[in-house]
Amino acid sequence: MHPLHKPHSPNALASTPCNQRKPSPAPHPVTLMPHVRNVLYIMCDQLRRDYLSCYGHAHLHTPNIDRLAASGVRFSRAYTQGTICGPSRMSAYTGRYVSSHQVAWNAVPLPLEELTIGDYLRPHGIRTALVGKTHATPNLDALQRLDIDPDSAQAQPLNEVGFEAYLRHDGIFPDSPLFADKRESASYTHYLREQGYAGSNPWHEWANAAAGEAGEVLSGWHMRNAHLPARVAEAHSETVYTTDRAIDFIHEQGEQPWCLHLSYIKPHWPYIAPAPYHALYGVDQVQAPIRAKPGQASDHPVYQAFRQHQESVNFSRDEVRLRVIPTYMGLIKQVDDQLGRLFDVLQSNGRWDDTLIVFTSDHGDFLGDHHLGEKEFLLEPAVGIPLIVRDPRAAADISRGTTDRRLVETIDALPTFLEALGLPSAEHRLEGRSLIPLLHGVETDWRRYAIAEYDYAFQAPARERLAQPIDRCRMTMVRSERWKYLAYDGFRAQLFDLENDPQELHDLGADPAYTQVREMHQGYLFEWLRGLKRRTTISHTEIDLRGQQFRYGEPEAEKVVQIGVW
Amino acid sequence: MHPLHKPHSPNALASTPCNQRKPSPAPHPVTLMPHVRNVLYIMCDQLRRDYLSCYGHAHLHTPNIDRLAASGVRFSRAYTQGTICGPSRMSAYTGRYVSSHQVAWNAVPLPLEELTIGDYLRPHGIRTALVGKTHATPNLDALQRLDIDPDSAQAQPLNEVGFEAYLRHDGIFPDSPLFADKRESASYTHYLREQGYAGSNPWHEWANAAAGEAGEVLSGWHMRNAHLPARVAEAHSETVYTTDRAIDFIHEQGEQPWCLHLSYIKPHWPYIAPAPYHALYGVDQVQAPIRAKPGQASDHPVYQAFRQHQESVNFSRDEVRLRVIPTYMGLIKQVDDQLGRLFDVLQSNGRWDDTLIVFTSDHGDFLGDHHLGEKEFLLEPAVGIPLIVRDPRAAADISRGTTDRRLVETIDALPTFLEALGLPSAEHRLEGRSLIPLLHGVETDWRRYAIAEYDYAFQAPARERLAQPIDRCRMTMVRSERWKYLAYDGFRAQLFDLENDPQELHDLGADPAYTQVREMHQGYLFEWLRGLKRRTTISHTEIDLRGQQFRYGEPEAEKVVQIGVW
Hints:
Chains A, B: Keywords: Hydrolase, Metal-binding. 2 copies of one chain form a homodimer. Chain A is of the alpha/beta class. The first copy, chain A, is built from 21 helices and 15 strands. In chain A, the strands form 3 sheets. In chain A, strands 1, 2, 3, 4, 7, 8, 9, 10 and 11 form a 9-stranded mixed beta sheet that branches. In chain A, strands 12-13-14-15 form a 4-stranded antiparallel beta sheet, with helices on one face. In chain A, helix 11 packs parallel to helix 14 (about 320-350). The radius of gyration of chain A is 24 Å and the shape is globular. The termini of chain A are far apart.
């Protein structure tokens, strides 16, 4: 029997750490519809919200992602909770804000007790696998203290943040001796050799390299080579390789329930694409940069410090943008083509009709906007992400093809999976909210603001330029219906009016006319900090049962608790 | 070789989870003094700050505790972070606020990754043992998920929150069938039988019972029996039994370094004492209750709800106070006599000269003050605790016998132990501050306010009377130099002027004249929430090393990180 058919059976509950279910907050007719059987959670890396045709890009056509949006809901104001991979992904996997799961930067270990997607689904018989990137870092200190061998079977799901690593593909490692072991342990390294790409580091020498005019190898790490085709055939490139493994998994699983996290490393740098994707777009199809007029950019010290970063300085040069962005677009186009292959498989084998599909990104890429590169700042090009959700059930027909402008967050994915699968929630831990009521057109109060966080303690140049101590380098975004408020340790806040200044070109953070608006958002920040879940080892149901012991005077209770009895 | 002689050796560091040391915040001459060898951390349960003669009690003389104060420092404004046992003790053992360690109430499991005293000391060769109470609760859900047998050796230190349980003595269990196994597994149960106290539950029938006029057994759970002597001989009572085990441990340990947590269950209820302590004090030695004049008590809904608790109603009756308080005083007197025994041992075997001694309590007891019983409210009788610290080193001579009025907290104990022992600190986790600079007369900026928290979600009567959801029952105290501000979920704050109203009889929380004072303290609350340590899986030193990778342009670094290279 399908385990999902009896999600509330005592056995199922006893085997899961989140075994107290409260009724869904929204009273929508969940009883009228079956639960979905599978979840396909697709994530791109460093894909900007506005680089998809369904999100309005003028030249980059992504018909397959658009097909998903046309049969699902496109969220036009979705935000990541972290602006770089590790923090953002751990929020996706735990359903909790960065300040709660504590992974403030890349390669920071997730506390072992943070429950992830696999912890919630696996006890109910749902195989929960990874194909692609997670940026998970083993928590070696905790394993050592708990006397758990990091290489043991016991440690594996912990090291993979709860996923079965069907394919772990975190992207190319720096070409440094420090990473030799990791490169050799990466399956893509061996796959390339099997395809005839020889060498000690074929990933770097073929997939991440182009050929110079004299046949010399030009590194894909250097953006000046972004216009050249990679030395790897498209059929053997990372995006195709990842998609192949996802299709293998889905075929292998057959009719058994699954949750697959298909996590593409692209269009994340290195910015180099295999033919023909390296040449699909030209400089005339590169959107103009979003920049304040000369002399009108914010004078905020943190923003100014980030403008000094190497990637910001380089991306401020037109020759860099014009060489990199067409390739960035080509890498996205390749992902869209591969998703077309995948969606055809799902439609042919019936999975399209019983699988909840989510398409999103972990964060964006400034690409020179605001004279910034990379994504370590809380403006829209970095924190704005695409989010498309397709619920195959009839109850979702009401919303198909629509755009939802409500403020949604990366942490909403896991609660959405749980409700769609008919599994118990865990309101004492989960900080995100299920999107199912939104997909089913059910009236529900929604959050008034979205939160994102970044901690530049890990970047010595900015921290030292700003002379901030290591525990005072936090930036926090409070994005409300109209405003974006950016709070900083030790510096004034920034404020942007997204209704009248959607490009965030006018910093109102020092304008006395907006004191009340800033105070209101400071109040939201307090409310959010106060509301972080800090009672994660006991469920609300357990607390309620415990409380009953204090019903003084009731004979049964008095037998247990005899405090203050005369 | 004594491991403390090389606390910075690579091996010592590799073996400890807190292996990055930063210089002490205060530049005092630590190099001029040896480190202490041992730590004796004495804690009473439910001992009010003002029930010791060195803290001003008019009738209760505690010469042995006073002896410690005379040769150490008495902190006159020490606060617990939680007002009941579990939360307060987990703050003591982790050096972190309740909102950080998450043990919001009794019997809530501590997250396995919260490091405790033993985790910091044991890797340096210091045997860290418990004699008495911790109120620790095994984290069974986490152990199950990590596939650790709760009964295994691997789990034991986790189940005992890092202590070696030389004697675990959490106090009598309720006389309910639910607790039969726990009663039978308690060593004191068997000790009593060995001394000839027969029965299935000798703890209840002898130690927690008195004899009626007709020889019938009267339960110590009933406060009406508090004036009668316990049926157990003083030599076999809990306080003597606990002290005996502590002396055994110290003798057993000889010259080897140790940290002993001597944790008396008394004067915690049941309020019943062995002869002669049941009759040492009379009703004329009971201090008058601290209560607002009729009609002048605060109308705050949460305060009013707590006044309805059974123990509050009973302790509001004079006959209850006059019967219970003399026995409460006798139980404290017995602890003082036993500490006299223990201190004599330390002075005879040399430990008095190489041991840091801390005496404190986990929280107080209202005893009818403010028409409240127990300790679940954030007024002085509950949150005010005694704290006496004796550092045997010459550098502390400057402060011996003095009183320090600075705002200190229970979470300061662990950082104090680490500095006194010369061990690495862990500023990325520890939220308390070392008291050593205060003991050594070293100039240092000190905290501006102390924090305490209570969560009444676990008490159904108050929660339901106030109609608050289970995650909106928090009370937070911000106690500054002059003021006490009490913030509530869903209700107005309370405010007391401790300079002009030390008894907290006049609630200024609704007085428009104090709006700015309340706003200032709301600002402190925000600052505190923002400052909670949320990056506990990576040290500041590791972050700093990581940051160095981003020194763009430095050849060695560039080999590792090649982001945004043109």
